[in-house]
Amino acid sequence: MRFDALVEVRLRPGIADPQGATIERALPALGFSGIAGVGVGKAIRFTVEAPDEAAARARVDELCHQFLTNPVIEDATVVLSGVTP
Amino acid sequence: MSARVGVVVFPGSNCEHDVVEAVVGLGGSAELVWHGDRSVRGFDGVVLPGGFAHGDYLRPGAIARFSPVMGAVASYAADGGPVVGICNGFQVLTEAGLLPGALQKNRGLTFLCQPVTLRVESLRSVLTADAVEGATLRIPINHFEGNYTCSIETLAQLRDEGRVVLRYVDNPNGSVDDIAGICNERGNVVGLMPHPERASDELLGSADGVMLVRSFLKSCGLFGAGAAGGAGQPGDVGQPGDVGQPGVGQPGDVGQPEPRPMPARRNTDALTPASRQA
């Protein structure tokens, strides 16, 4: 089966996020109030072929750990969807 | 005794000739090594120069660590061979797990290209074994992702073991503990963000980098001496780094690297499971 994968890479808690902080600081000047906790990450999309969803998830998790994230500073959230039999 | 230095060229490296110039200017010899080569056999030292290896895509160094030459560099380093990563080379070494921690975007989100003042903090590395502890050096930086970060435990370890090799006197980029350069436990692998090779002659505005480049060359066996200080004996590596047939790939041959098993991350610092969810 082929799965659509969406990997969201974001900075681990406690790691400074200068991009997020800069965006957040700019918001009041642009008239956006009430917005907090801005974080900037990356979204990576691809498809993965695997016998089932658990296997697909295991492969994507391994890919995230080895390549798509730097585990020293980044975490990943994986969303699998759009199963194509 | 001469010192033959291999300068690794990734697609997107751009400081390799500066390194060659600095090495040759001090009496060493230098050769460019294409990233597709699988061997660094026969070199007395290896430099990963600055630039934007593989376009810095994904993260600086993230793709470079899969270049065939990196397997050879890792074995060479494991055998005690002197390895220095400058700027992008430092980023590659952290991604490859040969040095701990990571380099983030600069605090303030500006690309920094300016001379900075560094202080030599430890002599237990191949880059500083022959330097003067406490010396202040005027050397340029040229980076966007030079903000060194690591776990609290790693930082404590780096400090306790004298592995913070260079510090910024006036921190330009937000690096934790003003760190500009660190080394591994043996002291034979060093990474630093500043560019000593660009401060190798008064004509360039400063010759302060000479102290570091000279120390590196001495660790490589130039001037008839092995490594000094606590840097071990990186000269006695015999034929390190040969992990396959040499000479695969030619300069200009960017070609597809053949599929190969993904090298495991050696860097287990802060490897708590990611918060993954469906």
CATH class of chain A: Alpha Beta
The major beta sheet of chain A can be summarized as: 3 strands, antiparallel
Strand order, biggest sheet of chain A?
2-1-3
Shape of chain A: elongated
% residues in beta strands of chain A:
25-35%
List its salient traits:
heterodimer; A: 85 residues; alpha+beta; Mth169, Chain: A; 34% strand; elongated; B: 278 residues; alpha/beta; Rossmann fold; nine-stranded mixed β-sheet; two-stranded antiparallel sheet; 5 helices; globular; disordered C terminus
Describe the structure.
The complex is a heterodimer of chains A (about 80) and B (about 280). With about 80 residues, chain A is α+β, with helices and mostly antiparallel strands. Chain A has one domain: Mth169, Chain: A (2-Layer Sandwich). Chain A is built from two helices and three strands; from the N terminus they run βαβαβ. The radius of gyration of chain A is 16 Å and the shape is elongated. Chain B is of the alpha/beta class and about 280 residues long. Chain B contains five helices and eleven strands, in the order βαββαβαββββαβββα. A nine-stranded mixed β-sheet of chain B has the order 2-1-3-4-11-10-9-6-7, with helices on both faces. In chain B, strands 5-8 form a two-stranded antiparallel ribbon. In chain B, strand 3, helix 2 and strand 4 form a beta-alpha-beta unit. Chain B is globular, with a radius of gyration of 17 Å. At the A-B interface, helix 1, helix 2 and strand 3 of A face loops of B.
Q: Would you spell out the secondary-structure blueprint of this structure?
A:
The complex is a heterodimer of chains A (about 80) and B (about 280).
Chain A: E1 2-11, H1 18-26, E2 42-49, H2 53-68, E3 74-84
Chain B: E1 4-9, H1 16-25, E2 29-34, E3 45-48, H2 68-78, E4 83-86, H3 88-95, E5 102-104, E6 112-120, E7 136-143, E8 147-149, H4 152-160, E9 164-168, E10 179-183, E11 189-192, H5 210-219
Parallel strand pairs in B: 1-2, 1-3, 3-4, 4-11
Antiparallel strand pairs in B: 5-8, 6-7, 6-9, 9-10, 10-11
